[in-house]
Specification:
Elements (H helix, E strand, L loop, with lengths): L1 H12 L3 H23 L7 H21 L2 E4 L2 E4 L3 H9 L1
Helix pairs in contact: 1-2
Length: 92
């Protein structure tokens, strides 16, 4: 997502898109790669691609979390409802 927003801003400002893409990737993902390296976490040549995919999926996951009424957590299905909805269903 940071890459997409950076490219949109660069295109509207008339700045070089490849240079902007490189700068955004370095600023957004280099600190995370350095942290993974420093802590001894798994880091491969595909890690940055996985980070970009993760960041692309996050808005959809966030919206689904806010709009969804049920969630499964560690194998336990839970329904998220307010007390008003529960009372209305008991009456009906």
């Amino acid at each position: 997502m940071p890459l997409l927003l950076g490219l949109v801003a660069a295109a509207s400002a008339g700045v070089s898109l490849p240079a902007t893409a490189l700068c955004v990737l370095v600023v957004a993902y280099l600190p995370e790669c350095l942290l993974a390296w420093a802590k001894g976490w798994y880091l491969s040549s595909r890690s940055v691609t996985a980070m970009i995919v993760r960041d692309t999926m996050l808005p959809a996951i966030w919206v689904r979390g806010w709009l969804g009424g049920a969630v499964e957590w560690r194998g336990n299905a839970m329904t998220i409802r307010t007390s008003e909805l529960t009372e209305l269903e008991e009456i009906a």
